[in-house]
Amino acid sequence: MPDDIARASAAPAAQTGKRFSAFISYSHRDEEFGDWLHKRLESYEVPSALVGRASSVGQIGKRLGKVFRDRADLSAAHDLGREIREGLEQSDALIVLCSPRSCGSKYVQDEIRIFKQLGKGQRIFAAIIDGEPHAAGRPGYTAADECFPPSLIFALNHDGSVSSQLEPTEPIAADFRDGKDGRENGSLKIIAGLLDVGLDELVQREKQAERARRRRANLIAAAMGVLALGAAGAGGYAWYQQGQTAVARDEALANFNLAEDRAKAERLARADADVQRGVAETQRGIAVSEAEKARIQELAAIANAEEASAQRDAARNSLARIFAERSWQSMERGNYLLAARYALAGYRASKDIAEENDRAPANEGEYRSALGRILHDSNDSRALRGHADLVRSAVFSPDGALMLTVSDDNTARVWDVASRRVIAGWRHGFRLRVAAFSPDGSRVVTAAGSARVWEVVGEREIAAFGGDDRDVTSIAFSPDGARVVTGDSDGGVLVWNAAPNIPDGRREIAVLRGHGGEVTTVAFSRDGTRILTAARDGTARVWNADPNIAESQREIAVLRHEDLVVTSAAFSPDGARVVTASGNFARLWNAAPNVPNDRREIAALAHNDLVASVAFSSDGARVVTASWDDTARVWDAAPNVANDRREIAVLRGHDGAVWSAAFSPDGARVVTASPDHTARVWDVMSRREVATLRGHENGVESAVFSPDGIHVLTASADKTARLWELAFYDRDPNEGLNVHYYDETQRALELRIADANTTSVVDTASGREIAGLRGRIPTSGTYVSLSRDGSRIVTTTAADHVAKVWDVASGREIVALNGWVTTAALSPDGARVVTTSNDRFARLWDAASGREIAILGDETDAAMVTWALFSPDGAQVVTSRFDLERVNSPHTRVWNVRRLTQPLPELALAACANLLSPNGRRFSESEITGDPLIREVWLRDGREDRDVCEGVPGAPALE
């Protein structure tokens, strides 16, 4: 479609005094796409370089402004015809979702006619989502395939009726169909039009804005702290709460369209994985200078010569090495998926060269180091693939053995944690909103129109309730699994008997009447005696769950929120308090009986933007809130605490909104999910980020801990869920560092000159000589460390900054490690050495050969690594950095040695099987266009769909 879509509309409504920047007109059968586009436009953050610019129709603001969509913006009690017309009058542009359904819709026709009659016909954008324009005149199509409504392409008569005369100009359109513009480019065309800027400029500004976001994110050093794994005593309740957290995040998103603060939205718009693979990957890709392009093309010309020569081999090896460089550059920019593609492609190219010349591949160490780091920083996650659309939520069963995922492809699936395989699944013919495990994990309840209960083993439906006339929006099992409570789109709340072998018509136990809008949350108290509900009518309510009391006595409390949508609500473990989310506040309430409703509010917990989810810790002492202000916050939930003393921690680090937050079973940690493609784990007391879970290709919808606190489960818009293992090093990192001469066995050592050619290493406590090292070593300014098995010693001397590894038995030097070394330590078995250096990195070495295994650190971290130690089992390394801005809070990080030292074929397989999605195994079009290394070397045979995992033994085949 032409670029001039950008110049066919007016400026954002926010800058012209109008209420709406656009009005979306569509058939209700296209509602799902309308929902997506509405959220995309309202959540879009204008690149800062464009903000404040004076365009032909006004000044560009930070947001597009509000977008009118009939279901979200029409009331239920007024003249809808009048409100439609007012909405069109107050809208700066009209966006028509064009499909065969809208082509035949009288309402869409009328909305286009009214907009044209208002004199704004040149401000209509066509968004083609299905069908074909001018279908009747095209081979293979019929009139039934037409997507353009007649009033869109034909001029109006003076009386407002549609004439037979075509408009003088073709309607400007963005084509969202597969194989055309797609969702991302299509939406950017619409956005460019609303901003009155050229599409090319908008894309360029987007790239600049993304680079700026990445720079900011990289300046926030990932504080990988040292934590003890929490006890799982409260795991059962944490499981119960995690389901509510996932549902709450979902409802916060769904209800945002009706919130008073509608102009506030996420920083990164949710979109499908293929959307992000286009523009977002370009934004975070490698910026290649013209000189670098020329160098690559020159090397490629030599490397692609038909005649073999030493010069050709050298050129090919140089190019293969650049792939490793690109991989590290991509990691520095936070794009680990692109980094994996570069590393795998370089590894394959290096193998191709080696096979042609019948020799071992060159540069293997560089690819192994890069892939090891990529997988290490991705926390060894395992992708759960199979869904065909966004995965909305993922939760563990109460015993942690199973996982349940819910997707916008209208399926729910149960996965085995150990094997990560699907063991049960159910497809629904209606929109699937939510699903939940029963307390014993043997059943699943789903909400898709009606509610249905299924047996996990056998996948048999054992109950159905709610009826086809109700759209069930929220569900929950009672703690004993005997009942299910449902909330629906009309405000209805019903309690049902969930036992098998009962006729569906006899399952209704109780009706809880009072809500006047769609129910967003339902939950039982921990003891099952009360029910909590929240709704779009601005209230949360607490009910008596006893079915035998009179209906008039069931309502215990009404928690009013000043007409704001209540997006999330949760009971405290003891049921005495409730926390709710509405607008920019979470509120803490007294849920006890016989308290006047106007005296129930305990505290208002403020954020700077919409609160997306709320949850109690398992002991009820704290509350965690997630917000679109880019933070999660932990609060003191005790009843008698002053409001200004409630905030315990602000968890800041996501590059975008925080969708959800959940406590670990012991309450010591919090996991957050964000549209910035990451989940993050935080230590509550230190307020530090202790793990960044990278690997998703799109926004993370939800994240929860397993009942034992060892795993995290995430759900993402990239159509996958991921299972992450949190392998923290359980040891005080400062232990044994107060004495200069301390070795890994915690013995104080001393160097003594034995003779002109020998230096003795002496245990100062016993006076016994441990080793006689052949050579004269300075006895002052030398660090000495003995491996735990006593086989090797490493020394580091301040005079030359060289680490030397010595054999204890013979006293001979095994290897010298250069690189301005400041400290060194041996693994317990003496097989590896970790060193620190003034270049801000720690390095892992093979102690026998002196080969560098891995670089531990980040290019963007300016703080110096002050020490590094192995864990007692040698499986991990702990590093600490000194930061002048955090003198009293050292920055520590734990590194997985097993992953960093894994053989290259195993790393390649792990990247192909677990990290990269099938689409992610090929370079995107934008990546190919931006880097001649990919075009000239990787794709030199002309196959643009070449798989970076081809030739990796065991890698799943692409379909």
TrEMBL record:
The identity of this protein, by name, is TIR domain-containing protein
One BP annotation, GO: signal transduction
Query: Superkingdom, according to UniProt?
Result: Bacteria
Is Acetylation tagged as a keyword? no
Q: Does the keyword rRNA-binding apply?
A: no
Q: List the keywords (alphabetical).
A: Coiled coil, Membrane, Repeat, Transmembrane, Transmembrane helix, WD repeat
- A UniProt-annotated Pfam family: TIR_2
Q: Name the residues that span the membrane.
A: 217-240
Q: Coiled-coil stretches, from where to where? A: 288-325
Which spans of this chain does UniProt mark as WD repeats? 384-425, 465-497, 512-544, 604-636, 651-692, 693-726, 814-855
| All residue ranges annotated as the TIR domain in the record | 23-131
Query: Which InterPro entries does the UniProt record give?
Result: TIR_dom, Toll_tir_struct_dom_sf, WD40/YVTN_repeat-like_dom_sf, WD40_PAC1, WD40_repeat_CS, WD40_repeat_dom_sf, WD40_rpt, WD_LIS1/nudF_dynein_reg
